[in-house]
Amino acid sequence: MLNKPVLVESVIVFVIVLFVHAVVWDRYSWCTVALAIQAFYVQFKWDRLLQLGGAVFQFRTAANSGLLPASMVIPLLGIVMKERCKSAGIVYFERFGIVVASTGMLIALFLSVIAVGVTKPVPTNTCILTGVAGSIIIYTMKHSLTVSEVIEVLEVLLIFVYLSMILLYLLPRCFTPGEALLVLGGISFVLNQLIKRSLNVIEGRGDPIDFFLLVAVVGVVLLGLFFTVLFIFMDSGTWISSMFFHMMTAVLGLGVIMPWLYRLIQRNPLFWLLQFLFQTQTRVYLLVYWTFLAASACGVVFYQNAKRSSESKKHQASTITRKYFHFIVVATYVPGLIYDRQLLYVAAVLCLAVFIFLEYIRYFRIKPFGQTLRHLLSLFLDERDSGPLILTHIYLLLGMSLPVWLFPRSCAPKGTLSGAGALVPYSGVLAVGVGDTIASVFGSTMGEIKWPGTKKTFEGTMTAIFAQIIAVALILIFDSSVNLNSSYAWILAAVSLVSLLEAYTTQIDNLLLPLYLQIMFMA
């Protein structure tokens, strides 16, 4: 029997796909539509596998597979990037968009083939649909990609396969299949780009902040893999292991990551970073302001834990309390987007590295702070943190940062896109910081009419749409670089569809919603 919330979520995703391709219809649109149809069928096979415990790895159990919404993200991002860069006449990034779209389609197809292959009895209709979708995608790739681009797509797919085998085994119940596709697909693409640019450093394109993101992401992932393997043979909670952890972090950071970054940017990374951070007075003011907000967030954590100690050991932070952090993140990102986006870009990369490093300390119980972090963060757990890692705060940071990192600066004249595209860097602020927060707060306090089959309320969704429209109006007032060119109907449609998706999806909304809103704005 079909799950009604999953069915409605799928309809919303199909509508978004059709909206995007109504604007940018080309040969890749046939591939995306075919992929969406087969992902819709395979999604229910994945859901059945998860319910029966037939999946090879352990996935997060409090959600459906999420294959359809996740399968569309990377291909749609590549297609809208291709169109924007084609309009700007930037051939290199136009081809890059095609590679991104092709890679996303093959990764999604790979996950579909796995689900079909392990389902007993073999679903004939789904196999036929998967074969047809695969044939269309491969035929289009054959006539669209050069040999070097095909090799690049296959490299990313190979990295994704190996990363999936390793990380899904080491981190049970941390992801749904859809979330694994997005997270591991993104890491695979970043790793391949870093290897490619390291081998062609003389011909490397982009500025140092792009290399900084690539090295930081790959560095923290490799650091985690190294210590995970190491602590299989050692007790990570002892002082000796903790000292070894800190020593090896310094060795890998200064002996591998720093020289790697030096090779890419051709200057001392530490000196470059210090010069970059304190280059202007505006940046100093922003850094001081962000430090104050970070201290405020820590204050909320300590206050809530003190409250738990005085009330009950079983006390858990309420939904409204968790949304305090959403308000703090909005207050962090908006000034950065208005006054200095490059600084925000680098600061977000640093925060991501720090968050992941602190999660390693918590997970491995590294002294002296590991046990303390476990105690402090356990207060803010929800049903999505069912695995060994606590990822919701990292997903929040990613949801706010990905639109900033993925903004096609090279294809944007004067640093901004025209029409609704001018709001692309604000996608995270609007979808997560404003929409998701307002929907949660108003829905939990005043909502009465529930959407069929969900805990979300009609009042929460409508309030979220209204709040995001007000936020867009405020952005127009305070950010002079934003010029919407009368694309108000498209913005309203984008905000409404993403808010409906928030009401029905069981995936990590902090990660999924900003990406869909960014796709709609870029289209």
From TrEMBL:
GO annotation, cellular component aspect: endoplasmic reticulum membrane
Alphabetically ordered keywords of this record: Endoplasmic reticulum, Kinase, Membrane, Transferase, Transmembrane, Transmembrane helix
Highest taxon of the lineage: Eukaryota
Keyword Nucleotide-binding recorded: no
InterPro entries recorded: Polypren_kinase
EC number: 2.7.1.108
Keyword Ribonucleoprotein: no
Uppermost EC category: transferase
GO terms classed as biological process: dolichyl monophosphate biosynthetic process
Molecular function in Gene Ontology: dolichol kinase activity
Subcellular location: Endoplasmic reticulum membrane
Membrane-spanning ranges: 7-25, 62-80, 92-116, 122-141, 153-171, 211-232, 244-262, 282-303, 324-339, 345-365, 386-406, 426-446, 458-478, 490-517
Record's bilayer topology term: Multi-pass membrane protein
Similarity annotation: Belongs to the polyprenol kinase family.
Record protein name field: dolichol kinase
Organism this protein belongs to: Himantopus himantopus
Gene (name only): Dolk
